[in-house]
Structure formats: C-alpha cells, structure tokens
Amino acid sequence: MWEGLFREVILLIELKNVVKSFASPDGMEVHALRGIDLSVETGDIFGIIGLSGAGKSTLLRVMNRLESPSSGEVWIGGRNMAILSGDELRTARQDMGMIFQHFNLLSSRSVSGNIAYPLEVQRLSTGEIKDRVSEMLRLVELEDKADAWPSQLSGGQKQRVAIARALAGRPKVLLCDEATSALDPRTTRSILHLLERINSSTGVTIVLITHEMDVVREICRNMVILEDGVVVESGPVKDVFLNPKSRTAKEFLDDLPRTPSQDEELPKIVGSPLVILRFDGDAADMPIVSQAIKTTGVDVNILSGEIDSLRSSRVGNLTVQLSGNREEIEGAMEYFSRNGVSLEVIWNG
Length: 349
Ligand SMILES: Nc1ncnc2c1ncn2[C@@H]1O[C@H](COP(=O)(O)OP(=O)(O)O)[C@@H](O)[C@H]1O
Ligand SMILES: [Mg+2]
Hints:
Rossmann fold; 6-stranded mixed beta sheet; 13 helices; binds magnesium ion
C-alpha cells in the first residue's frame, strides 16, 4: 500500500500496456503501439527516441488524448486519460502543453497574441492575460519581440514563442514532438538549453520526442527507445549509453563518433583479447588503466577511445588490447569490473 502511495506522488506519467492500432485503407491494421509500458517522474526531462515510423508521435498523441488508445491505461497526474471525456478531458488537457517541429504559430496574431491565445480560451481576465504574457516573454527571453509577427522571426525565435504559448497555462508537462528537428545545430542547442533552464526554474516535466541521439544526450535524464511500437530499451540516459542492448540503441550510438565499430580493422593477436571498456564519471577521471597495469602486470595497448560529456557527468570508452599471461589478463578484467568499468570482449584472443 505504501509503495502505491509513493509511486503516485513521484510519477507524473504512467502508461500501462498501451496499444494503438489504426485501420488502413486496404483493410489491414497498422499496429503503431504494441503494449507500451513507461513511467515519467515529476520534474524529469524524459527522452523518447526512435526511427521514423516507430510510433513516437502516436505515443505523444495518446498521452494528451488527441488519439484514444485501443487499449491500456494512460495515467497523467493521477487521471486515466484513456477514459476521460467532456469537461474532465478539457481540464486534464490544460495540464499539458505541446510544441511541434513546425511551430504551428497563428500567422494572423502577433507574438503576444499567440501567447495570449490559450489564456483567452481558458477565459482568464484581461489583466491576468497581460501579466502572464509578460512573464512568458521574459521566460523565453523575447521581451523585445512582443509586437512582432511570426513571419518576422527566425526558426529559433518561433519555437521560443511556441514554448511560451505552450507554458502560458502553467501545465504540469510539456510534450515536445521533434521540436528541434527543423532547426540548425546551434539553434537546436540554444532551444534545448532554454528547455533545461525552464525545467529547473519552473519544475515543469518535459517529454521530448526525437530521432536524434544528440538531443537526448544533451538534456534528458531518462529515456526509452521505441522500435516498431515497442519499448526496446529504457532507463537513465547514462546507462543506455554505457550498455546499449538493443539493435536500435547500438545503431543510434554508432551515429555518434564515440562508440567504436566492431568491424574496424583491429589487430588480432592470439592470446591478446580485444576489449571495449566503458566507464562513467568517477571512473573516467581515475587513472584506471595505469592502475590496472601496475596491479595486475597486464600490458594494455589502447587502440581507440573517447571521453564524452553527458549532461554534467562524463562517460567514455576505450578499445584496448590486453597482453600478458592468462592470470594477468583475467586479473585485469576482474580489476576493471571491480572498479565500475563495464567490459565487452569483442575478440577473445
Ligand atoms: N492516423 C493514422 N492512421 C493510420 N496510420 C497511422 C496514423 N498515425 C500513424 N500511423 C502509422 O503508425 C505508425 C507510427 O507512426 P508515428 O507515430 O507517426 O511514428 P513516428 O512519430 O515515430 O515517426 C506508422 O506506421 C504510421 O504510418
Ligand atoms: Mg513523428
């Protein structure tokens, strides 16, 4: 019972066995979501990554009930969105803001007018709307653009307006569907860092859909990988980066210049295994390789490697060749494992 209570407090979003199928024109069914379980903690920045067609947009649309699930439960802030209707659904939707790849601003309204729009729908007073619009313009650092028209803005500025509009009603969660996919890399980073600042200053939970691993790596704390409507990987971003299990995760990581490809031409010497060492924050800063050499007598030949920043911590990997007698090699492997380094033997000599 206590566990049930506790989970309700910290989990903002919980999906249980969510299925969504569409009837296609040829009479076949498209299974967009095939039994999704996932949970998002209050205040998290949560990434959903997958290739095109994996079901990401459908998943977001099921969360805010633009789409009804075929079956399953969609709990958002203690309400099962899957069964709400009418006024209850309208109230529940006010807890959710959404931004899109193509911004979807109203071209006939000024920047302020766009931000005011959802507040007018919610029938706030003119004074309240004015105050809230100013507050939002400050939040996204666009105070000088209050009276500009969308057509006068850059892509990054348009997305800032969309963020201000989505947050104007003070939702509990901001759903972002490929929000940076139409932006250049520098603007992408500035939007992501704005989202990160907003998350820490307001506490709003952010769910971010993307097909780019870089986006997840930049700001997300937890993530799932979606493949053909199924969650194939989930957990803290750092764990998924360090120990990718699914094919999709490995492919996404291969796109980044940090995981060594196993097909590389690596020297194969009988009796000298090739090993990928993956380490995180603490281990990355320790002279762990030289310690292993000193402690076990093994010889370590570093073939390739990289250290990378992941939010505030660092992760890294080294592809090494271990030489020595069997005892030294096994001793070194044991030494690495004991010191928090995960180890993948890619050729066992
Ligand atoms: N309204 C719809 N009608 C029929 N099929 C759909 C509909 N929406 C999505 N799909 C199908 O569901 C699958 C997942 O689509 P989507 O959620 O848009 O993927 P993603 O956002 O990851 O690219 C695709 O095969 C897509 O064609
Ligand atoms: Mg999509």
